[in-house]
């Protein structure tokens, strides 16, 4: 059975469990929701770009290799914000 890109990335990250594409999508959306929650917080003093830099290491395993992790996460944050 061929291994998808998502599965390869999870194996590289040291996980012994292979995530499905749906589980990986849910994980990235969860990171984006945490970022949005922090951005909307009254105590927040960081810009969107600073928060993207903060959360991009968490999203890096899910990011396609041809994109920067912060840029990939920015697209997901926009989609979550727009309700897509």
Describe the structure in your own words:
It is a single chain. With 84 residues, this protein is an all-alpha fold. It has one domain (24-82). Helix content is 64%, strand content 0%. The protein has helices at residues 5-12, 21-40, 48-59, 69-82.
Please give a handful of descriptors for the protein shown:
single chain, 84 residues, mainly alpha, 64% helix
- Helix count from the secondary structure assignment: 4
Query: What structural class is derived from the secondary structure elements?
Result: mainly alpha
What do the pLDDT scores average to?
Answer: 84
Give the ordered list of helices and strands: HHHH
Q: Domains counted in the coordinates: how many?
A: 1
Instruction: Report strand %.
Output: under 5%
Distance between the termini: 32 Å
**Coarse morphology:** globular
Enumerate the spans where pLDDT stays under 50 for 5 or more consecutive residues.
Answer: none
- Relative helix content: 55-70%
Biggest pleated sheet: none
Query: Radius of gyration in whole Å, from Cα?
Result: 14 Å
Number of DSSP strands?
A: 0
In a nutshell, what does this entry contain?
The protein is an all-alpha fold.
SSE order and pairing:
Layout: H1 5-12, H2 21-40, H3 48-59, H4 69-82
């Amino acid at each position: 059975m061929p291994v998808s890109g998502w599965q390869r990335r999870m194996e590289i990250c040291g996980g012994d469990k292979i995530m499905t594409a749906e589980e990986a999508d849910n994980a990235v959306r969860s990171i984006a929701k945490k970022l949005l929650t922090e951005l909307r917080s009254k105590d927040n003093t960081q810009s969107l770009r600073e928060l993207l830099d903060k959360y991009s290491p968490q999203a890096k395993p899910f990011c396609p290799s041809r994109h920067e992790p912060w840029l990939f996460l920015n697209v997901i944050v926009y989609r979550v914000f727009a309700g897509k």
